[in-house]
Amino acid sequence: MRLSNTGRWSLAALVVVAALIVAIWPRGDSEETGSRSYADYGVPTAAPQERASGDTPEALAGVRAEAALSACPAPAPGAVPAGPLAGIGLECLSDGGRIDVGAALAGKPALVNLWAYWCGPCARELPALQEYAQRAGDAVTVLTVHQDPKEGNALSALTEYGVHLPGVQDGTGKIAAAVGAPNVLPVTVLVRADGTVAGVLPVPFESADQIADAVREKLGVSV
């Protein structure tokens, strides 16, 4: 039996519709255990601003006080900022003031952790990072870097995690760009006392011991 012209067009339309259904049908995702990219969470890969417009000092006052974060590091006497982080000015999460990250870290080995409030692996890693920081004491400076404009969400998340590490707000990803970090979270950046980068590690740590091993390997500091 021969199809009429109308029949042919109807058949062609059905084929096109079927192809579209196949193309957009949701696929099941396997369980993720490693670092996740911004796209995995539906987050834009380029944050448009350092801090969300609604996160004014007045709006953040309550959550900032509740988070009770440690003060950001201060420059060591006589230390000269150098390396890719020198000159990067960001807001300190603990009090809303601004610091020069390179200057604040100069003169001492540092661990800089990139994270975001929506990152599941980050939520598991941050308590281990705090345990490591308590163990390291003054031997290594530990600084967290929030990689999303929603600063209020970051402060609330840290309160929920019971993490009080010093941190900065970096919604535009200045530090990630400066060190060439990949587009995943979490990322740990290990910085030598002279400001040069010893390692960029795009892997989530599960324990303080794992973090200590990485610091010992890359920075030569054992704690």
What is the number of strand segments? 9
User: What is the number of helices?
Assistant: 7
User: What is the CATH H-level superfamily?
Assistant: Glutaredoxin
Overall CATH architecture: 3-Layer(aba) Sandwich
Ends apart, CA distance between termini: 83 Å
Computed over alpha carbons, the radius of gyration is 23 Å
In the CATH hierarchy, the third-tier topology is known as: Glutaredoxin
Shape: globular
What is the succession of H and E elements?
A: HEHEEHEHEHEHEEEH
Task: Output the CATH class name.
Answer: Alpha Beta
Helix content: 25-40%
Major sheet attributes: 7 strands, mixed
Work out the strand percent.
15-25%
| Widest β-sheet, arrangement of strands | 3-2-6-5-4-8-9
Q: Tell me, rounded to a whole number, the average pLDDT.
A: 85
Structural class: alpha+beta
> What's the number of structural domains?
1
Unreliable spans: 5-33, 41-47
Structure, described:
This protein is of the alpha+beta class and 223 residues long. It is built from 7 helices and 9 strands; from the N terminus they run H-E-H-E-E-H-E-H-E-H-E-H-E-E-E-H. It has a single domain (47-219), classed as Glutaredoxin. It has helices spanning 5-24, 57-67, 101-105, 120-136, 151-161, 174-179, 208-219; strands at residues 36-37, 89-92, 98-100, 110-115, 141-146, 167-169, 184-185, 187-191, 197-201. It is globular. Residues 5-33 and 41-47 have low confidence and may be disordered. InterPro entries: Redoxin, Thioredoxin-like_sf, Thioredoxin_CS, Thioredoxin_domain, Thioredoxin_ResA/DsbE_sf. It is found in: Cell envelope.
